Every structure is written in structure tokens, then in C-alpha cells.
């Protein structure tokens, strides 16, 4: 289905620009500042470039929730002297008094100028009072012994130099408007007026996100490339001349690394060598036209396709095009005559017809059949046209958007004595046109688009003519190597099809002929069309009309015997009920399911043992169900068994094991021991069946059904599985709280990285690809997806996860860098730490729900930079890595990637993957950007609108003046971090604030009062903590590591803080250890929000995860969430 914001761009013959939204049904005139007439446009998802009639280049940037803003910075440098102290008088060898961070570039505050008139300053210059996450002293100065050196916030006896940073933000203001690309003032650098341009390049391998490639052709035949076009600089910086093998006429750039241009001589020039380091490419290769007598006029490229038009307007398809062979192998002649064509997203093809000037779409384009099957004309009207009045309006509003459908329904029937044309017989005249000229059911199709019909109509039979031989069976393969057959003289049927005032479109109202759109250009670079889910412009063929008269006659004939049978069945049912009324009620039923599994023996030596499994379910007279799971095994030739009451099971989880399809059952006693009951099935499907059955039995025994309540506690596992637990009334009882290990966790479904819940029933989550999802209340999902009790509100959820491995090498004087390391070195293929061996072949997906989507590739986006081959260098393992080789570097590494495909009154805050802070008012439909001076990592909002956040450098901030009337607040206040610690997460409750640092220490903020919400100091509470979640009544839950069990230390254990009394004992007294699965399975995140009379504001925490370079896309995802893009 079309993605959010997906739209088709087009220009009519009068130069007016229109857009057709994927969710709309009519062309909308693009209104905005700038020129009124354009020659052509080239669209991408974030923007659209165009050439106006004045030959100037313009860009149209869509407005979004996040502003386009850039930070400018300048450093003020001073040196100490014994006479005047610190001053701006520096040594001749020193840096500039005002410079950049390196000191090599002079940057005075008055020397900063906006790139163009479309930028504006947000605010004046101001000091940055942050130094490595700590607030600086008065004046923002940091001190060092000399330039350059390590700077500190304290002035020492040997601090001879100091500097401070001034920052200022600029914002791009020309959004939702045409902005003219500024021309250089130097006449020698001024490019010629442009005649064509193309935008693409956003899918080049490992290219920085948001970067675009803009190519253009001038009137003198020169090729130009726009430098520096990216998300933060949508206009780019300058034009660069690219040498061409001849005078270029037109150019096309695909989403990946394909760039083709047509030359004045009729040939095509293909740009080779395009990659992330050389977006302009290295050289050109000339491709000959399909017909030497009629050269190429227009080309358009996608990811793996190239379409072209020759000077006689014929359409051609290039075979064998890909990234390794951008020139392709041969030309294939296609059907139709077009003015121009354009390849959009997913290699879908759009064009403009020659005769009717209609926008055409190539149907049937898939990955396996890139050439498609047929052309289809769009008949969407324009807003405000007279063509939307009368009968045509009713037809279009009823879903008939294509002209052949309208032709059939608006045309009148044959007059008496007049023979109906063969083209219009039958009910399927609106079927899709195929390349063989016939509809899907074999009837002649699309009489209106006669110019694009591939097979000529059969000649009429004269009297006495013999019956033709039956046609051969239709082949499954269509031959697209053949050119269009010669067109015969028009027959009566084809002549009749062209009698309408709109020619092939068949609209008979003469008023519509003058006002129908005549198109000159179309661009599909921002229009996402999936073959299996086209937008509303492509309705299904109309169903066959029913023959009502014979059907009514048949019903009249059969009504008598139907009534007689119904009466006999009713009488039989009544007698049977009376005969069995004296029988006693049925006894409690027993249902048994048996099977063969393997059990991980709990005593040494631990090993897998074959067992027979029996699940017995009892249904009592009151309808209540109870279940027991029996495991029968042999021990020293003696039959023994183990039984588990399912009403005592606290959680069922799948276990990732390369050799076994296993799962684990926990009970309160086994939770204390950290030793679950582990079972394995022969196949993945059997394992899922057993988990689904056991989960359903556990929920039935506890009378749990439907979605979790507002009081539920949510949790995530390391694999991203979502679980929820319904708290008992005495869970927070100060005197005798219910044990945490007796809580029952049921799988909700879905796959998330973070989850946050509000006591008002609003639950949000974040996927590994930073997509926000909102829970809609579906069934259990997961392994229990087939047993969901609520199929409503179901939406398909997808996710992408990144994982990486490192290739390590050491230098030796004989062979240079090689995979032979020292005995004390790390593995040559390892993780980031080097302690775990990770090879390409042995790196597996984390769970069966994920599937690989691509092969391994080198990652160039790692922090610290890389060389052209992706290597990072250092003096030894481990050390600080950099992207260039020096004489002291003896080791190097590089990272490899692989893809897998894997309410009113509630305030919601989030952090984007770029560190921007967002606020969603009332959980509405748009995000509000909250300005920050540095990228943030985590944010949390409490019950009374207390907003705390953690920056990526570990510093803590408090948002002031946040209220219901001003939900975004008015400013950030820096809070000192704990001594020598950098925080990574913060959680806010009603009157308390807890945080976790990067070393796993849990901290409590003292001194928080309504008059002083920032608090006074940090107090250490515990260690070995991964995450913390504070509820609206200051309940404290954490995910802890190294929890002692009877067999081993447990990782990822859910722990509840006991003795928490707000105002009296806010830190609590001790921990109650709950579910935890040792090294097999661990919980990563938990959201604990219980309802209370005053309610709470909810919160969402977004954490930026650095790209981990193996992407996963789940094969079977849960459908209980809806995506919330921003």
C-alpha cells in the first residue's frame, strides 16, 4: 500500500504543477510561493526539484513535524599572561582568537552568513555551559595547558589557555513553497540555463541518511551535479561540472547508483563508478540506441530497470541492468507511443500518452517481471473542474476512475434495430488490458485505449465463412522480445470506440473535452505503489451483472419444498429435546493431548531426555477449567513422571537455541531457583503449537482474556517479545505485599525495543527501526496468535534490527595486514568487545520470527570514520580507532552488515534517532519539536508534568514550566550528574526521580519538592541495574543482573522495590526478585504504571541505538499495533 505522504507529481501543458495523493482521488493544484509555470519536475520522498519556464531551478521541501535546523558554532580562545591574565592576545603560533574546534579555521561571530535567503536565525549567539556532561563554571570557560589539549571545567595552576563555545541555530523556512536555488555571484561559475534535471541516489549503499543526488543538463549540453544536498541542507551548496562524452539532452538518476543520459547524437551515456565515496561516479560508457536510424530521445532509470523512448516515440526496455552491470545487455521493444516516461519507487513506470496527453501507469511490474504487462490510463479529475459535475461525477465518486469503466457505464445501450458492437458485449468490458489485447476473462478489453492495444482486432466473418481453428492454449510465459505488430485498418468496432468527444477516453459530454487535464510531465519518485496493494486509483473490475429474472423464477419454483424441509427439521429438533429432558447433567469433562518432546534434565549430568507429554484439562460443573502437564520419562529402567499445575505457571517463553526448538516454563519455586522446566520439540511448528496450547490453558485457568487492563505491568525480553502482567490488589501492600515471583506474565504479541504505558489505557512502543507503535488492544499474538480472542484492531507490524560483527587484522612486516594475530589477540572475527567470536556463517537470527534480507556488506558509518575499504586503525587491541592509517598503527578492523527482515489528556514525549526531543499534545496526530542545544538520549514525564531528560553525553536536564496550558515548557535546566558518572536513562514518578548510569548504578534524586522540582543531590541505591521504571504512585521496578539463584546468577531479572512510601521512605528498603531466566532469556525493559485517582500524564522514552549492522525483518509479526510515523 502507498506509504504515508506518498504522492504522484505532474505538470500540465500550461506549466501548472499538480499532485495526486495516494489516499486521494483528484489532482490538487500545488499552491506556494515562486513561479507559476514549470517545464518539468523530479520528485523524491522529502522534496521535489523542478525547472521553471525561466530556466531557473527550484526545490519544494515538504513540511514535517521536525524542523530543518543546523547548529553553527565558534570557539573563543584566550591565553594567560602574567600582566593582564587571560586575554585575546595569543602567540604567533597559536590558533585564531575566534576559530572552529580544531583552531585551523577562522570563525568570527560577525562572519557567519546564512546560506540563502530561505534560512533564518532562530536566536542570537549564546554560550554553551556543558563540558563532557558537566556544567561549566561562570562564563562557560574550559581550561587546558596548551592548544590543543584535553579541556577541563576547573582552572588549575598550569592552565595557560582557555576557550568557550558559542552556538547559534539556523532554521530552513522555505517549506511547502518553491525555493529558488541561488546562483553563484561569480559569472565564471554561473552554469548555463538548465533544460533537464533528475533527483535520486537516496539508496546508495551505506550513504549517509538524507543525502540526495541531483543531476542536471544545461542548454549547451553540459552535465552538472549539485554538491551537498542532504536533509540538513536541502538546497545543496554548489554546482559541479561533470565531463560528458558528448552534448547531453536529458538525464535520469535512479534511487540507487544508476545514472543515464541521452546524447544529441541519439546515444545513451551511462555513468559508472558511483558509490558513497564517489557520488558523481568515475567514467561514462556509451550505449547504442535500439534503432540506429532513430536515436534515443528520453531515458528513465530505477533500481534495476531502464526504460527509454526513441525519437519516433516508441517505448523500449533495457534488459540485464543492475548495479554490477549498469549498461545492461540488450533492448526490448515494448508497446505504446509516449511523450515521456518516468520510473518511480519499486521500479513502477509512469508515462504521458502522445494523443490524449493522459497519465499512464504500467501494470504488472514486479521483481520477477520488471517489464510489466499493460498500460493503464488514470482518469482522476482535478479539484474544481467542471468535469466533476453531472453523470461523470457520480461515476468517479462511485469508484470508476478509469476511462474504459466510464465508457461502459455512461454509454447508452444499442438502439432498436442497431447491432451492438462486439467490443461492448458482455459485462467484463472494463477488464484490465493485457499485452495480448484481451481481458482477464478472454473478452476484448479496453476499447477506449485503442492506440495502446497490442493485438489487432480480428476481421469480421463474411457470410459462408468457415469457422476458424481454435486458438492454441494460452502460454504462461509472454514473449516481450517482439515489437508491436502492424496495425490494420480500423474496423467498425474500433471506429465506434473512437466516436466520443474525448477520443479514446470515451466521455461523451462535450463540456468535459475542453476541461480534461492535458499532461506534459509526470514524476513518480515519491509515489510508492505495491503490486499487491495499489491505491484507490486502481479499482477492481466491476462484477458481472446478475440475471435477475431466471433467478427469481428459480426461487419461486423451489420455495414450496424449501418451506417443507424447514418445517420437518424444526419438528425433529423439538422431539429430540423433549425425549432427552429426563437425562442427568453431564459429568465434568476431561480433555487430553499427548505428544513426544525432550526435557532438559535438572540433575547432573544435564542432558536432553526423551519424554512423553500429556496435557489434561478438567472442566468442572461450574465451567472452570484446570490443567495439569505430565512428563513421563525413564530413569534406570524405572518409569517416573513430573507434573506441573498450569495455574501455577508464571510465564512461558521461547528459547533461542541453534540446535533445539525449545521453550521454558516457570513456576514460583523454579523462579526462586532460576531453573525453569525446559522442553524441546522436533520442529519449530510443533514447538509453537505446544506454546500456544499451554499459554491458552494458563490464561483460561486464570480467567484472563482480551487485552491487558489499564493497570497492567508491561515488560520486554531481549528478543523484543512483549509480555504483560495483571497486578494483584495487594502487590503494593506496605505490610504484606504479594511476592513478585508469583506474578503471571502472558505474551501480548508484537516485537518492540521499548514500551511505555499510561494508567489511562494508552500504551506506546518503539521498534528497532525507531518506528513508534501504539497498542490497539488485540489478542495475545506471538506464539498464541492463532488463539487470539480478539481479532479486531489488528494491524501488521514490521520491524528492522541491526547487528554487526567485526573483522580484525594485525600488521606484520612480511605480509602486511593479515588475519594472523598474536596468541593474546582477540578473535579475527568478533563482536565489538573482541571477547565473543562472531563469524558470518555462525551469526544467526535471534529468534525464528526473523529472516535474513540481504548478504553481508561493509559498514562505513561507524563512529570515528573509515577509509575507502571500511577499515579503522589503532595502535593495538583495544584502543581508540580512527579512519586513517598512521605509522604507529599495527592493527585494524572493519564492521560488516547483513539485513534481515524481520487519548485526550495524555502527554507524550519522545526522542528521535537524531536526538531531537518531540512532544505529542493530547496523543494527537502531529509532533511538536522542542528545541535543545545538544542531542538527547532519553526522556521521561511524571504524573505532574515533570519532564526529565538525559543527553547523549550523559548529562541530565529538567524541563521547566511544563503544564496542561503549556505542555512543551519553556526551557531546559542542567542538573549535575552523580560524581564521575554518566547517566543513560531516567524515570519520573509522582514525587521521585530515579536514574541509571552507564555502569549499572541506580540513583535516587533527593530533595524534590513542588517548589524545587530539580532536587538537590543524587543518592546511590543499588548496582547491577539495567533499567528502571517508576509508576505514578512512585512504585519502583527495575531489570537487574547478577541475581543469585540456586544454580547460577540470573541476568535480566524483574525486581520490585519493597517498602517505598512517598514522603517517608521514597527509596524503599529491599528488593523482591521476580521472573528471570538466567543466561537463556532476559528481560530488558519494564513499564510499571498503575492507576490512581488523579491519573497520570503517561510517557514514552526513546533511546538512540547506534547502528548495529545486521538488519532483521520478522517473518511473522504481531498485528496488535498501529504505526505512528513522524
Automatic annotation (TrEMBL):
One CC-aspect GO term: cytoplasmic vesicle
Location of the PH domain: 660-699
Chain positions covered by the region annotation Disordered: 405-475
Keywords, in A-Z order: Autophagy, Cytoplasmic vesicle, Lipid-binding, Lysosome, Membrane, Repeat
InterPro entries from the UniProt entry: Beta-propeller_rpt_TECPR (IPR006624), Peroxin/Ferlin (IPR006614), PH-like_dom_sf (IPR011993), PH_domain (IPR001849), TECPR1-like_DysF (IPR010482), Tectonin_beta-prop (IPR051513)
The protein's name in its UniProt record: Tectonin beta-propeller repeat-containing protein 1
CDD domains registered for this protein in UniProt: PH1_TECPR1
Superkingdom as given in the UniProt entry: Eukaryota
Gene3D superfamilies cross-referenced by the UniProt entry: Pleckstrin-homology domain (PH domain)/Phosphotyrosine-binding domain (PTB) (2.30.29.30)
Organism: Anolis carolinensis
Gene Ontology BP, a term: autophagy
One family name in Pfam for this protein: Tectonin
SUPFAM superfamilies: PH domain-like
Protein location: Cytoplasmic vesicle, Autophagosome membrane; Lysosome membrane
GO molecular function: lipid binding
Family per record: Belongs to the TECPR1 family.
Main localisation: membrane
Amino acid at each position: 500500500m502507498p506509504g504515508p505522504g506518498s504522492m504522484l507529481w505532474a505538470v500540465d501543458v500550461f506549466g501548472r504543477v499538480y499532485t495526486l495523493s495516494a489516499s486521494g482521488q483528484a489532482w490538487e493544484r500545488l499552491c506556494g510561493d515562486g513561479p507559476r509555470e514549470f517545464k518539468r519536475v523530479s520528485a523524491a520522498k522529502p522534496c521535489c526539484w523542478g525547472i521553471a519556464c525561466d530556466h531557473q531551478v527550484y526545490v519544494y521541501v515538504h513540511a514535517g513535524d521536525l524542523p530543518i535546523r543546523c547548529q553553527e558554532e565558534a570557539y573563543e580562545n584566550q591565553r594567560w599572561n602574567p600582566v593582564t591574565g587571560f586575554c585575546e592576545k595569543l602567540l604567533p603560533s597559536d590558533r585564531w582568537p575566534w576559530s572552529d574546534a580544531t583552531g585551523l579555521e577562522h570563525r568570527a561571530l560577525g562572519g557567519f552568513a546564512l546560506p540563502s535567503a530561505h534560512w533564518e536565525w532562530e536566536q542570537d549567539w549564546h554560550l554553551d555551559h556543558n563540558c563532557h556532561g558537566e556544567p561549566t563554571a561562570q562564563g562557560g570557560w574550559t581550561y587546558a595547558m596548551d592548544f590543543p589539549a584535553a579541556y577541563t571545567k576547573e582552572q588549575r595552576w598550569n592552565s595557560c589557555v582557555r576557550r568557550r563555545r558559542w552556538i547559534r541555530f539556523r532554521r530552513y523556512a522555505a517549506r511547502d513553497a518553491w525555493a529558488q536555488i541561488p546562483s553563484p555571484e561569480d559569472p565564471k561559475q554561473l552554469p548555463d540555463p538548465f533544460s533537464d534535471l533528475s533527483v535520486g541516489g537516496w539508496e546508495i549503499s551505506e550513504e549517509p541518511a538524507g543525502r540526495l543526488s541531483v543531476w542536471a543538463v544545461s542548454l549547451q549540453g553540459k552535465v552538472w551535479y549539485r554538491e551537498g544536498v542532504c536533509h540538513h541542507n536541502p538546497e545543496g551548496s554548489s554546482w559541479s561540472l561533470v565531463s560528458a562524452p558528448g552534448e547531453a539532452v536529458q538525464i535520469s538518476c535512479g534511487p540507487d547508483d544508476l545514472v543515464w543520459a541521452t546524447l544529441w547524437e541519439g546515444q545513451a551515456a551511462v555513468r559508472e563508478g558511483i558509490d558513497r565515496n564517489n557520488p558523481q561516479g568515475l567514467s561514462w560508457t556509451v550505449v547504442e540506441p535500439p534503432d540506429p536510424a532513430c536515436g534515443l530521445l528520453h531515458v528513465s532509470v530505477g533500481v534495476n530497470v531502464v526504460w527509454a523512448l526513441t525519437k519516433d516515440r516508441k517505448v523500449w526496455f533495457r534488459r540485464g541492468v543492475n548495479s554490477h552491470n549498469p549498461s545492461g545487455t540488450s533492448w526490448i521493444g515494448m508497446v505504446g507511443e509516449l511523450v515521456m516516461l518516468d520510473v518511480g519507487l519499486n521500479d513502477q513506470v509512469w508515462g504521458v500518452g502522445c494523443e490524449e496527453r493522459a497519465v499512464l501507469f504500467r501494470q504488472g511490474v514486479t521483481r520477477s517481471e520488471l517489464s510489466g504487462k499493460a498500460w493503464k490510463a488514470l482518469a482522476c479529475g482535478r479539484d474544481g473542474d467542471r468535469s466533476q459535475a453531472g453523470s461523470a461525477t457520480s461515476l468517479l465518486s462511485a469508484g470508476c476512475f478509469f476511462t474504459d469503466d466510464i465508457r461502459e457505464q455512461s454509454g447508452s445501450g444499442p438502439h432498436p434495430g442497431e447491432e451492438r458492437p462486439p467490443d461492448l458485449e458482455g459485462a467484463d468490458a472494463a477488464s484490465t488490458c493485457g499485452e495480448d489485447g484481451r481481458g482477464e476473462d478472454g473478452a476484448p478489453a479496453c476499447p477506449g485505449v485503442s492506440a495502446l492495444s497490442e493485438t489487432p482486432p480480428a476481421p469480421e466473418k463474411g457470410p459462408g465463412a468457415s469457422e476458424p481453428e481454435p486458438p492454441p492454449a494460452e502460454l504462461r510465459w509472454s514473449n516481450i522480445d517482439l515489437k508491436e505488430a502492424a496495425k490494420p485498418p480500423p474496423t467498425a468496432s474500433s471506429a465506434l470506440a473512437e466516436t466520443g468527444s474525448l477520443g479514446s477516453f470515451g466521455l461523451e459530454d462535450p463540456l468535459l473535452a475542453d476541461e480534461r487535464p492535458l499532461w506534459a510531465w509526470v514524476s513518480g519518485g515519491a509515489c510508492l505503489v505495491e503490486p499487491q496493494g495499489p491505491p484507490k486509483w486502481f479499482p477492481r473490475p466491476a462484477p458481472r451483472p446478475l440475471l435477475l429474472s431466471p433467478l427469481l423464477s428459480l426461487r419461486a419454483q423451489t420455495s414450496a419444498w424449501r418451506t417443507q424441509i424447514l418445517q420437518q427439521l424444526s419438528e425433529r429438533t423439538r422431539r429430540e429435546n423433549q425425549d432427552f429432558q429426563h437425562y442427568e447433567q453431564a459429568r465434568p469433562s476431561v480433555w487430553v493431548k499427548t505428544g513426544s518432546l525432550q526435557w532438559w534434565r535438572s540433575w547432573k549430568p544435564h542432558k536432553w531426555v526423551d519424554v512423553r507429554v500429556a496435557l489434561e484439562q478438567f472442566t468442572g460443573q461450574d465451567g472452570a477449567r484446570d490443567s495439569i502437564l505430565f512428563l513421563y520419562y525413564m530413569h534406570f529402567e524405572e518409569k517416573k513422571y513430573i507434573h506441573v499445575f498450569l495455574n501455577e505457571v508464571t510465564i512461558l517463553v521461547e528459547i533461542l537455541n541453534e540446535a533445539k526448538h525449545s521453550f521454558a516454563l516457570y513456576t514460583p519455586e523454579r523462579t526462586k531457583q532460576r531453573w525453569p522446566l525446559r522442553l524441546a520439540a522436533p520442529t519449530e511448528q510443533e514447538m509453537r503449537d505446544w506454546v500456544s496450547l499451554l499459554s491458552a490453558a494458563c490464561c483460561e485457568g486464570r480467567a484472563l482474556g482480551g487485552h491487558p487492563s489499564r493497570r497492567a505491568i508491561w515488560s520486554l525480553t531481549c528478543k523484543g517479545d512483549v509480555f504483560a502482567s495483571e497486578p494483584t490488589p495487594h502487590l503494593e501492600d506496605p505490610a504484606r505485599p504479594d511476592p513478585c515471583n508469583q506474578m503471571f506474565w502472558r505474551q501480548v504479541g508484537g516485537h518492540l525495543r521499548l514500551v511505555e504505558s499510561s494508567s489511562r489505557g494508552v500504551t506506546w512502543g518503539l521498534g528497532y527501526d525507531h518506528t513508534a507503535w501504539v497498542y490497539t488492544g488485540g489478542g495475545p499474538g506471538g506464539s498464541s496468535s492463532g488463539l487470539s480472542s480478539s481479532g479486531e484492531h489488528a494491524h501488521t507490524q514490521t520491524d528492522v534490527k541491526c547487528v554487526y560483527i567485526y573483522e580484525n587484522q594485525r600488521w606484520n612486516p612480511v605480509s602486511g595486514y593479515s588475519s594472523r594475530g598474536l596468541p593474546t589477540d582477540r578473535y579475527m572475527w568478533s563482536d565489538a568487545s573482541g571477547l565473543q567470536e562472531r563469524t558470518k556463517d555462525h551469526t544467526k537470527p535471534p529468534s525464528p520470527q526473523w529472516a535474513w534480507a540481504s548478504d553481508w556488506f561493509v559498514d562505513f558509518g561507524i563512529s570515528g570514520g573509515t577509509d575507502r575499504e571500511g577499515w579503522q586503525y589503532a595502535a593495538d587491541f583495544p584502543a581508540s580507532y580512527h579512519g586513517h592509517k598512521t605509522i604507529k598503527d599495527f592493527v585494524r578492523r572493519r564492521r560488516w552488515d547483513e539485513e534481515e527482515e524481520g487519548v485526550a489528556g495524555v502527554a507524550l514525549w519522545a526522542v528521535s534517532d537524531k536526538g531531537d526531543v518531540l512532544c505529542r499534545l493530547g496523543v494527537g496526530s502531529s509532533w511538536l519539536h522542542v528545541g535543545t542545544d545538544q542531542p538527547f538520549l532519553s526522556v521521561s514525564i511524571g504524573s505532574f508534568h515533570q519532564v526529565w531528560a538525559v543527553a547523549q553525553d550523559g548529562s541530565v536536564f529538567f524541563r521547566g514550566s511544563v503544564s496542561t496550558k503549556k505542555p512543551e515548557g519553556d526551557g531546559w535546566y542542567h542538573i549535575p550528574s552523580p560524581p564521575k558518572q554518566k547517566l543513560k536513562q531516567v524515570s519520573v514518578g509522582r514525587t521521585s526521580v530515579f536514574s541509571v548510569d552507564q555502569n549499572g548504578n541506580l540513583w535516587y534524586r533527593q530533595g524534590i519538592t513542588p517548589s524545587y522540582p530539580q532536587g538537590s543531590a543524587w543518592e546511590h541505591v543499588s548496582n547491577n541495574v539495567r533499567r528502571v521504571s517508576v509508576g505514578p504512585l512512585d512504585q519502583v521496578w527495575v531489570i537487574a543482573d547478577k541475581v543469585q539463584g540456586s544454580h547460577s546468577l540470573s541476568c535480566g531479572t524483574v525486581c520490585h522495590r519493597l517498602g517505598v512510601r512517598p514522603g517517608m521512605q521514597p527509596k524503599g528498603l529491599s528488593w523482591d526478585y521476580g521472573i528471570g531466566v538466567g543466561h537463556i532469556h532476559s528481560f530488558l525493559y519494564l513499564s510499571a504504571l498503575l492507576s490512581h485517582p488523579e491519573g497520570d500524564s503517561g510517557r514514552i522514552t526513546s533511546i538512540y541505538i547506534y547502528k548495529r549492522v545486521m538488519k532483521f525483518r520478522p517473518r511473522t509479526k504481531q498485528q496488535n499495533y498501529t504505526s505512528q510515523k513522524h
